[in-house]
Amino acid sequence: MTQGFVPPAYPYDLLNEMRAGAVEKFGAMVDCSIGAPVDAPPAAVIEALSNSNDERGYPPANGRPAYRQAAVDWMHREFGVTIDPVTEIGAAVGTKEFVAGTPHFLKMRRPDRDTILYPAISYPSYEMGATFAGCRAVPVGVNEHWGIDIDSIDPADAARAVCLWINTPGNPAGGLDDLDAIAEWGRTNDVLILSDECYIEFTWDGPGRTILSSGMDGVIAVHSLSKRSNLAGVRAGFYAGDPDVVKFLQETRKHGGMIVPGPVQAAAAAAWNDQSHVVEQRAIYRERLEIGLELLRAVGAKVELPRGGFYLWAESEEGDGWALARRVAEMSGVIVSPGDFYGDSSPNHVRFAAVQPTEDLRKALERAG
Fold first, then answer.
1. Domains parsed from the chain with CATH numbers
2. Spatial contact of 236 and 250, defined as CB atoms under 8 Å apart
3. Is the CB of residue 19 less than 8 Å from the CB of residue 335?
4. Contact at 8 Å (CB) between 128 and 71?
5. 182-204: per-residue pLDDT in tens?
6. E strand or H helix at 71
7. Long-range contacts: 177-183, Cβ < 8 Å, 24+?
8. What is the pTM of this model?
């Protein structure tokens, strides 16, 4: 039988040997390789999840009115943008499925194009989404501040592009993009801009920013409750922006049965309607970033606080991210991700996710020091 697509190894599974070594040496590990929240969601959210009485039947794929209204109210309240709750927003089952699956739908919408543009240093699902869509995955360089460098895009690639993904604040390096300039580039080049903004409320350099502030034409913003509300396990998010694109995705996703479960929709509405827990979570992540900064410097890494996000992007003085990751594990019991998980152009870095309990990080810092 002819062999077709063979999925690559899931990157974080490659760290299992380091995890086992840390447990053997210290009796436990502190896994900062994946950005999975460990803190409790708000009690009101869990109450809504448990008592929605919405387990029966099929909720609308686009999201119930209360779900969409809570999301648009949050965007207006926190970022000053107005979104039509019917024509300019749709529900997503978390946002990883949206990131990985949407290029396939967009390629169907624009069959004359075959290229997905994405940041050269970024979350691996942008590239994987291009692969799933049968498209060319073309990385776009980043500047010295880790923001995407749209001036480096070859006009020939722009002419073939289905979309350009951006991620701001960025994962893994915490860069912030010039969203107005990117939106204008997309409109000028007839390239849809997909802006992954899941870390927007962990922006440290100024207020949070959304691509929708530049208008809806030719842009889609993608948001998630996984990070802001510690709800990665329930899978809830949304996409919003250009009404023509939103309508196409609403109808396409409806046929695919991509539905946020009813109880999850109730919990999500409760989460978007409350901001106090996000304020508390910001302070927690900021403290953990400071601890991580000390820890990584103690093991010889070059690192600064990010402009946004809850990751530290640390450079190996020897130019070997894997060697630095092993040293961090051996000296502190902390597991970090080698930089080549996030693109071929970053083999000399590691990513530290500030998501583990603060006391565990303090103990790891004591070991490293």
1. 11-31+277-368 (3.90.1150.10), 43-272 (3.40.640.10)
2. no
3. yes
4. no
5. 999 999 999 999 999 999 999 99
6. helix 65-79
7. 177/147, 177/148, 178/147, 179/209, 179/210, 179/211, 179/213, 179/214, 180/213, 180/214, 181/150, 182/148, 182/150, 182/211, 183/211, 183/214, 183/215, 183/218, 183/219
8. 0.95
Q: What is the dihedral of CA 32, 37, 39, 45, to 10 degrees?
A: 180
For residue range 10-63, list pLDDT tens digits in order.
Answer: 888 889 999 999 999 999 999 999 999 999 999 999 999 998 888 888 898 899
Question: Residue 136 forms beta bridges with which residues?
Answer: 115
Contacts of 170 by beta carbon, 8 Å cutoff, 6+ apart: 119, 121, 122, 146, 147, 176, 177, 199, 308, 309
Chain centroid offset of residue 4 CA:
29
**Over the range 179-190, which residues count as b (16 or more CB within 10 Å of their CB) and which as e?**
beebbbbbbebe
Distance CA 195, CA 220 (A): 6
Angle between helix 65-79 and helix 262-272 axes, rounded to 10 deg: 20
Give the 3-state secondary structure of residue 225: coil
Q: Which of 237, 258, 229, 220 is nearest to 106 (CA)?
A: 220
Q: Which residues pair with 237 in a beta bridge?
A: 92, 224
Task: Quote the CA–CA distance of 330 and 185 in Å, as a whole number.
Answer: 46
Alpha carbon distances (Å) from 346 to 228, 322, 339, 350: 27, 11, 5, 9
Q: What integer pLDDT is reported at residue 1 of this predicted model?
A: 62
Q: How far apart are CA 267 and CA 248, in angstroms?
A: 26
